[in-house]
Amino acid sequence: MQIKRILDDREVFLGDTVFDAPGRYYALLEHSGGDLVVAREDCHPIRFRPKQLGCYVVHANRTERGLAQERLRDYWEE
Q1: What phi and psi values does residue 72 have, to the nearest 5 degrees?
Q2: What is the pTM of this model?
Q3: What is the CATH number of the domain that holds 7?
Q4: Sign, Cα dihedral of 64, 68, 74, 78
Q5: The domain containing residue 31 runs over which residues?
Q6: Arithmetic mean of pLDDT, 27-50
Q7: How many structural domains is the chain composed of?
């Protein structure tokens, strides 16, 4: 699973700095259950949705079988 910034499409790694909408900065700790777990220097870990931090998640399962399953799932959800 990859996490990328929306602004410049660069990959984000653990420990990298990410920003929320008001401009507060956080260090990325982990990706857990669809959320990004981040922390400030003086605070405990906080969970954010990737979109709140200007990021998106790229799923690693991009094989033909994984893509076929994804298309099938999308078909039945519509």
Answers
A1: -65, -45
A2: 0.64
A3: 2.30.30
A4: positive
A5: 2-77
A6: 88
A7: 1
pLDDT digits over 2-30, tens only? 777 877 778 888 888 988 888 889 999 98
Going by pLDDT thresholds of 50, 70 and 90, the confidence category of residue 39 is very high
Q: Which residues contact 76 (CB under 8 A, 6 or more apart)?
A: none
Q: Which residues contact 46 (CB under 8 A, 6 or more apart)?
A: 26, 37, 38, 39, 40
Closest C-alpha to 18, from 37, 42, 1: 37
Residue 74 pLDDT greater than 80, yes or no:
no
Check residue 24 and report its DSSP letter: -
Q: How big is the CA angle at 19 (ends 17 and 39), to the nearest 5 degrees?
A: 60
